[in-house]
From TrEMBL:
The keyword Membrane applies. It comes from Musa acuminata subsp. malaccensis. InterPro entries: DUF3754 (IPR022227). This is (wild Malaysian banana) hypothetical protein. PANTHER family: AMINOPEPTIDASE (DUF3754). The chain crosses the membrane at residues 318-337, 343-362.
Length: 494
């Protein structure tokens, strides 16, 4: 998935949209998938065989990954921030041996992330995500002095990746899935802030000081705006467009100002952050932190950053504050020194000066309260798990996705007969859309490889793929250990 921002003409005039490419993850729960596909089969005997096949596919794929996942969990037990130090001391490893084990863990971890369809967040995606504001309106920065900058560079030197973000030497962020977050409220302080900000921009234009305070143009947004306009016409059916609804862009009307309004922001459905704290003179840090978050608004992505600094007024806020005070006082003194001082000019200058100073103070206080609330919510509501719990969740994710890919591919081949791989890919995506109203970029090559490994599909000389009949497929896979255990639990037949 890639993220691009722009204003698509066919998406509505003046609307701010985020263009998102379809992901490879199949967003349908496995039990629901199996039940639906089973009901599409006409013969009762075939339905029974299909259910048996689904179970045997899952048991077999789980067994394939068991050893790999065990190695991953054993390696992480050495770098668990809570108990890892004690385990490393018990093992009596040398520093060089620990360095090797760290890279082995990260290699296994990246493989699992790839299989789970997680992607590394890039600088471009972060800039697009942060080009707007949602609920978090303070500049949040990472205290980089508290983060290790040796572990990840060593890994990426051995395993190069494209489009690494600028912070990848200290921490990495993965993301998967897209959602929408909506918030309805009066947003009194935010509306007041918006009104004062627009008055401030008017003041800058009138005094011709706009260039002094104008921000550097957002090159990413401008480039992606053009790109979005070009792509909307060609791939509107392929990509997902999610609209941003923000207070800054709200129409200034009495109805909007006095009533509840709803703002909207795209979210990353899942985010995982990996980092290590910096070592000190008294202690060498070996713990690796793995934190798992859900439903993080793109514009509030700072919530997942590690080792955040306490926010404060930005240097630009102080500059604006001081300059506006100086300009206001100069204008006020000049007005009073005129032979016929205009009382309305004096009142306007004083009102503007007091209003802007009040804006800075009250906006900061409101944002600080919101920040503390969001941080608390991110810890209790949005953080799914950390450490071993996250890894166990990821391992199960991999198995579920692999099983669903195999089941869907086999079902299409069973129903449609011999197919070319590109046709199989399209048929699988159409099935997911027609039966579950979900879009995904189906990973057909990976699915076919697993079917071939199971021995239940083959390719002819022309490259077309066909599957063996259901009953034969179950015979080829054979009775699994899980089935034998369940049979033993049931006891001898009466």
């Amino acid at each position: 998935m890639s993220v691009a921002e722009g204003k698509g003409k066919r998406k509505g005039k003046g609307k701010e949209v985020i263009r998102l490419e379809r992901e490879s993850v199949i967003p349908v729960l496995k039990p629901k998938l199996i039940v639906k596909l089973t009901n599409l089969i006409e013969l009762a005997s075939d339905r029974t065989e299909f259910i048996k096949l689904c179970k045997r596919v899952e048991y077999t794929i789980r067994a394939w990954y068991l050893l790999q996942f065990e190695d991953l969990m054993q390696l992480y037990s050495l770098f668990d921030p809570v108990h890892g130090d004690r385990r490393l001391q018990q093992q009596n490893f040398s520093s060089e041996e620990i360095d090797v084990l760290e890279l082995n863990f990260l290699e296994y971890f990246f493989q699992v992330m790839e299989k789970s369809n997680f992607k590394l967040v890039t600088d471009e995606e972060i800039e697009v995500a942060q080009s707007g504001q949602y609920l978090l309106n303070l500049p949040i920065k990472v205290d980089e002095s508290k983060l290790d900058n040796k572990l990840l560079p060593r890994y990426f030197k051995k395993h190069p990746h494209e489009d690494l973000p600028g912070f990848s030497d200290k921490y990495i962020i993965f993301r998967r899935g897209i959602g929408i977050d909506k918030t309805t409220d009066y947003f009194i302080m935010e509306k007041l802030d918006m009104i004062i900000a627009r008055l401030w921009m008017w003041f800058l234009r009138v005094t011709r000081l706009q260039q002094l305070f104008s921000k550097k143009p957002n090159m990413i947004s401008r480039k992606d705006t053009k790109k979005t306009d070009e792509i909307v016409a060609d791939s509107e059916m392929e990509d997902l467009f999610v609209e941003r609804i923000r207070i800054e862009n709200m129409e200034l009307s009495t109805q909007n100002l006095i009533s509840n309004i709803t703002i909207q922001e795209p979210t990353f459905d899942r985010m995982i952050v990996v980092y290590r704290r910096a070592s000190t003179n008294s202690k060498t840090e070996r713990g690796i932190y793995v934190k798992h978050f859900k439903n993080i608004p793109m514009a509030d992505m700072e919530l997942v950053l590690p080792e955040k600094r306490n926010p404060s007024l930005t240097p630009m806020d102080w500059v604006k504050f001081l300059i506006s005070v100086v300009l206001g006082l100069v204008t006020l003194v000049s007005s009073l020194e005129m032979p016929k001082a205009d009382i309305w000019v004096v009142i306007a200058v004083l009102s503007g000066l007091v209003g802007y100073c009040a804006k800075i103070y009250f906006t900061f206080q409101q944002n600080m309260a919101t920040y503390q609330n969001l941080i608390t919510k991110s810890m209790y509501d949005k953080q799914l798990d950390s450490g071993k719990g996250t890894l166990l969740h990821l391992c199960d994710d991999v198995i579920q996705q692999e099983v669903k890919e195999v089941i869907i591919s086999y079902f299409i081949l069973m129903e449609q007969g011999k197919l070319e791989i590109n046709v199989l890919d399209r048929q699988c995506e159409e099935l997911i859309m027609e039966e579950f109203n979900e879009k995904c970029n189906f990973e057909v090559e990976d699915a076919v490889k697993k079917l071939e490994k199971l021995g239940i599909v083959s390719r002819d000389s022309a490259g077309k793929i066909c599957c063996v009949p259901l009953k034969r497929a179950n015979e080829i896979i054979g009775t699994t250990t899980e089935e034998l255990v369940m049979k033993a639990k049931q006891g001898p037949a009466a």
